[in-house]
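Key result, reporting period 2: structure in, sequence out.
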């Protein structure tokens, strides 16, 4: 059994049709997947029931895995105001579940998450998913990219926290990362 301190980060990709979630464990400078998945909400009648289900699922994840932090993707500004409002409510309900269990909440823009994971703030969901799989060293791609987006939010939080606290290596770019991680080159 390792004596290194352990942290668990819950990542949420909020949505009113599909909500992605993923948990990572940090032990020393090693990241591993705890679990990931999606919550299907399309068949629920009415927005209020979807919000209730998001709250319940987030609470269940917190109660089962006891994360130290909750990292969530912030709504982006789009053209459809109604969609943005619904997405903001979904995010708020997930945040409320974390606050209800006194879990610190950290919000990251989609661009910040993509930049942190791939080095490109305009990366596609597929690029983010591929890099998340590489960083966490798992082979099987999830059926829905919302799950890897949630893991990306958790990883982004870890990277941001690591830089701020000075824990772990800090990389100035891909060359630096690859030089200190030759085992991750495929």
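The corresponding designed sequence is given below.
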């Amino acid at each position: 059994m390792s004596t290194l301190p352990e942290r668990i980060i819950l990542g949420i990709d909020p949505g009113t049709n599909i909500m992605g979630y993923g948990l990572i464990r940090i032990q020393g400078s090693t990241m591993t997947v705890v679990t990931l998945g999606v919550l299907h909400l399309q068949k629920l009648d009415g927005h209020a029931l979807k919000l209730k289900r998001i709250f319940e699922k987030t609470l269940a994840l917190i109660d089962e895995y006891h994360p130290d932090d909750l990292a969530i993707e912030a709504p982006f500004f789009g053209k459809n105001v109604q969609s943005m409002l619904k997405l903001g409510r979904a995010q708020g309900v997930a945040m409320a579940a974390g606050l209800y269990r006194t879990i610190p909440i950290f919000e990251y823009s989609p661009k910040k998450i993509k930049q942190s994971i791939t080095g490109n703030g305009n990366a596609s969901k597929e690029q983010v998913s591929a890099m998340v799989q590489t960083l966490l060293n798992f082979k099987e791609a999830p059926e829905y990219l919302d799950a890897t987006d949630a893991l990306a939010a958790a990883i982004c939080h870890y990277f941001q926290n690591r830089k701020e606290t000075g824990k772990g290596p800090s990389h100035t770019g891909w060359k630096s990362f690859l030089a200190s991680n030759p085992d991750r080159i495929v």
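The CA atoms of residues 54 and 83 lie 16 Å apart. The mean pLDDT is 87. This case is discussed further under Risks and Mitigation.
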